[in-house]
Amino acid sequence: MKLVLDAEQEDLRAAVRKFLSDKAPSERVRAVMDGGPEEGPGHDPAVWSGLAAQGVLGLVVPEELGGAGAGHVERAVVAEELGRALTPVPFLASAVLATDALLALDDDAARTELLPRLAAGELVGTVAVAERGGAWDRTGGATTATERDGRWELTGTKTPVLAGDTADVVLVVARTPDGPGWFAVDAGADGLTRTRLNGLDPTRRVARLEFDATPARRLAATDATAAVDLVADLAAVALAAEQTGVLARAMELTVDYAKVRVQFGRPIGSYQAVKHGCADMYSAWEHAVSVVRYAAWTADQDRAELPVAASLAQTYLGPAAFTTATGMVQYHGGVGYTWEHDAHLYYKRAKSAEQLLGPPSAHRARLADRLGV
Amino acid sequence: MTAVDETENAATQDYRSALRAWLGAHAPGPVAGPTPEEHLRRAREFQAALYDAGYSGITWPKEVGGQGLGQAEQQVFADEAAAFDLPLYPFMIGMGMCGPTIVDLGTTEQRERYLPPLLRGEEIWCQLFSEPGAGSDVASLQARAVLDGDRWVVNGQKVWTTNAQFADYGALLARTDPDRPKHAGLTMFIVDMHAPGVTVRPLKDMSGRAPFNEVYFDDVEIPAQNVIGEVGRGWQAAVTMLGHERVSIGGRGKAKSNPLEFARLVELARRTGADRDPGARERLAELYAHERALELFNARMRQEATAGRPPGARGSVAKLAGALQLRRAIEVAGELAGADAVAWDPDDERGTELAIAINAAPSSSIAGGTNEIQRGIIGERILGLPKEPQVDRDVPFRELAVGTQRREGDR
Asked: Which residue ranges does the record assign to the Acyl-CoA oxidase/dehydrogenase middle domain (chain A) (predicted)?
């Protein structure tokens, strides 16, 4: 296994970090959060186009389909940077979930039609699997697909759906008479109601989608259930990378503050109570980086190990990132509890990320299953 | 077992397979209840066999009798050794700490005299730093060495001395100048543990075993040529040695017989039926996640070291995480074992083994630098956080209240 980035991957990191600090600094994130220049909270189309121009939306997409032909390690690097900067873009929805689903399924026509446009940022895609309660039901849940005169229609409700109200195309898992199936639904389809939800994390866009005999296109899948599992595992890895970025930035800002904030005549970082807390944050970060590099490496090189690695990544990262973000608020004291300071944004991102693919207990239970306990 | 590392080059892989074959053929099998003497004899024999086969002093330079290889080969040895219960313990301090320090700082005469017998398993070493009054703050130690002609005369007490009961030599840190600040007045010596005036007493720890000792020095004479490094530069010598300690603790393989190993705990869960309890399963998964994360961090540090970035103070992260992991493991073990961890039949070895593991766990949070010291190192050396105000740094040692010494007017 390879746990160290090569020079090219480090260059990618530096380029994305520079782009985000130039085009999507904290002020910009907050402007989008507070109502947005055009699209409303949690989505910044201008930064999204900029990322597309950087060529980082199709890192796992083969070159012949308009992607970069790189891999999951590279995508994890980008996700980490987006997490650090809390960038309000549908990366997880479009460059991770929708992209991975199309690659996991066996529909050449859909791939050829959609992947180049997703990679170019012309279309935003997302995946709708979860239903009420947020669990990823591999059977399609209570959403049904029926075939009428050779055309498929979906009926049911999916929630929460990342970027659900801003996506151009939604890939839905629904129950068919012959088991679970994958479907593509256009944003403007008849009988589709999209409701933007209020999110715990104001930098992430989430919606509920209601389908009422909504026309859908069935996507060819050899094993629709295996595809759900694979998409969930790859998302677990990418989300863990994002959480590592959140953890890293929360730690850095806390350490910087502990060096300059003076109380009782000396910097608070000189007191063991604070210093040791910062040391624990650093330790968590070193472990997180190692886990995420490994998990991303399995996604590229060792798919047999991916299920354990993906569950490991979520089991470790969820609590680690949230604990660190909590420490960030705590060590900033009163100022950390204000709206004006960014600490609450890291806190909210870390908490919502910890729950996004199921609660921590579900990740632990899945890890136990996968370890054969 | 150890996953194949794709960064491992062909030469390292060859080294691994040759070592694996050699260990398979030469590693001593388990002996039921060996006496300490028997254990020591087997350890000496095995160390000599390692030397003959070219596996002793892997990273030591060739001119002192070592193999002249790198950390990669040392790590391969640790990986492969983990599959066996090798009797390396009596030589751990000598090979891991004292020897490498003599390699770094010793005179030609010292290297020629002391290193070959150590490599061949003929002489055993211990390290004499800690005192009852000087633990985390080891620079405040009081053992006193006074120059008398061409020899030093030592008086004082050391504690927590591993292997002193059968050691032939010790690396002793003593105060040679109490008029200078605490770090500046120290000197490191090679002391003959069989010299008149050296008394070794076993110190029983909370697990009921006595792997440590108290060592008393009463007018013990040390020849002047036994100074390691320079007089007054004992602290620098100690830092060199502690750097080797961190490497040898961090790089230590996992003993196969550890009842707190994840696979053993899963076995325990199956035996007690806890594997059907969702809460217990989650705790096992969480334990695995932390254990695996630490393994991956260690693996990443090794890959970075190979790429030219030495671990430095980040070794403290691994040390701290290992200690916390052990605490987590005994919590889970208790959860799984239930009342079996409270009382067991006298002939139930698993019960005894688990009790010893539970009782020995606090040691890893203290030995080799407490968790608090590790967090301080991480905070100050890695994160650059400011130090606490230091009240004793530039004060002559004799004016400090340390150990049994009191400032005038304090009494």
From this structure: 127-212
